[in-house]
Amino acid sequence: MKKILLIEDEPQMRKNLALILKREGFAVVVGADGSEGILLAKRELPDLILCDVMMPEVDGYGVLGALRAEHATETIPFIFLTAKGDKADIRSGMNLGADDYLTKPVSVDDLLAAITARLARSSQHRRELRPIFESPAPLESLGLTPREAEVLFWVAQGKTNAEIGTILGAAAATVKKHLEHIFEKLGVENRAGASLCALEELARG
Amino acid sequence: MKKILLIEDEPQMRKNLALILKREGFAVVVGADGSEGILLAKRELPDLILCDVMMPEVDGYGVLGALRAEHATETIPFIFLTAKGDKADIRSGMNLGADDYLTKPVSVDDLLAAITARLARSSQHRRELRPIFESPAPLESLGLTPREAEVLFWVAQGKTNAEIGTILGAAAATVKKHLEHIFEKLGVENRAGASLCALEELARG
DNA sequence: GCGGGCATGCGGCGGACGGCGTATTTCGCG
DNA sequence: CGCGAAATACGCCGTCCGCCGCATGCCCGC
């Protein structure tokens, strides 16, 4: 049975989510704030962590950073829970090595889909491709608009269109559209080629 | 109507191929050796070039190199015609910027498929993804077998599975199988991630 | 000689991707 | 104010990708 650590400071939300997860047959461990979450993560070594971003004292980024810094916990799939509108913050979160994020209010389906997707992927431990870029800005020198640069930025981290849509708070269709323009501008045919262009640019700039 | 330049020193082969192409409604220009081919390419600026590899004096590589060195001709799709068994040579040819190659004897279907595919793609000029690597060998230090290294080598140049199959003289299915192993070994999920690992290795080694 | 790693091949499946068309909203610049 | 570029979004469609299982042949080392 898979063990999930839920870190959420708001009592009602915590209760609801825990209930949902238990009903799905997960073993659920709950932490009420960042510090407790970190302790629990290290002790329980859960299969996956759901963590609120906005918490007093140690926030979600703090938790993620702490866990990614230690060997025992660095590969545990980590999903952020955030309120709508934190989009800007999300990017740094993803850069720290978060695997996904969900915007509250969360639909049960989305929650379970994200969890099962992550559990499936993490069964084979993945390598961290990170942090090649600090910011998408340099990519604009390839003739891209700021938004296109952001898309390419994430493409070059190996993200899928759907993931990028989630990160940027746009529809996957929009990401595809941006990608069309990017391919056109870079003269490549697919995301792999675009990634390579991005890296070239990085190496040059 | 699309204009195709055919460079082939063997008279019978030249005649046959020209006939096939004409019957398909292409305007065909023929050159009997490398030097003539280069001249014709510059003068006629064809939409696509079919070029034999083995020719006296200036061979296929010479032609390709000459055309890629000049602005007017550098983006013309270039397809090699080679005899079975030249596989090793092909790789350097592809690195020079060839778009495809066909092994003689060529089936009419393969020939036309390759041509139409190339014409379709070249309608929007593509960027040459730099020859980043000289040889696949360094990639073996990632724990890959020689063959897997070769596959990754081409993946990192933005090639598609089918293209890689053609280059290595293996079935596309085999390339996919190698890729499965590569993903496993590198701990990534897709070709983009694998490319990045390859470049990382390159930068380090 | 027998196991095990390697290379090769095939086929199927579902999902992701890429191309294309279309349309609306937003925003900056003249 | 109005134009145009950028960003957003949706749908269709064919292809490529990634995953899985299976099978064969080779060669090397124990």
Give a structural overview.
The structure is a homodimer of 205-residue chains. By secondary structure, chain A is of the alpha/beta class. The first copy, chain A, has nine helices and five strands; from the N terminus they run βαβαβαβαβααααα. A five-stranded parallel beta sheet of chain A has the order 2-1-3-4-5, with helices on both faces. The longest helix of chain A is centred in the middle third of the chain and has 15 residues. Chain B binds a DNA duplex (30 and 30 nucleotides) through α6 and α8.
Structural class of chain A: alpha/beta
The portion of residues assigned to helices of chain A is: 40-55%
Termini distance of chain A? Answer: 48 Å
Strand content of chain A: 5-15%
| DSSP E strands of chain A, number | 5
Indicate the radius of gyration of chain A in whole angstroms.
Answer: 18 Å
Q: What is the oligomer described by this structure?
A: homodimer
Q: How is the biggest beta sheet of chain A arranged?
A: 5 strands, parallel
Total number of helical segments of chain A? Answer: 9
Outline type of chain A = elongated
Mean of all residue-level pLDDT scores of chain A: 82
Task: Name the biggest interface.
Answer: A-B, 25 and 26 residues
For the biggest β-sheet of chain A, the strand order reads 2-1-3-4-5
N to C succession of SSEs of chain A: EHEHEHEHEHHHHH
The parts of chain A where pLDDT drops under 50 for at least 5 residues are none
List the helices and strands and how they pair.
The structure is a homodimer of 205-residue chains.
Chain A: E1 3-7, H1 11-23, E2 27-31, H2 34-44, E3 48-52, H3 60-68, E4 78-83, H4 87-96, E5 100-104, H5 108-122, H6 146-155, H7 161-168, H8 172-186, H9 191-204
Parallel strand pairs in A: 1-2, 1-3, 3-4, 4-5
Chain B binds a DNA duplex (30 and 30 nucleotides) through residues 145-148, 160-162, 170-174, 176-181, 183, 189-191.
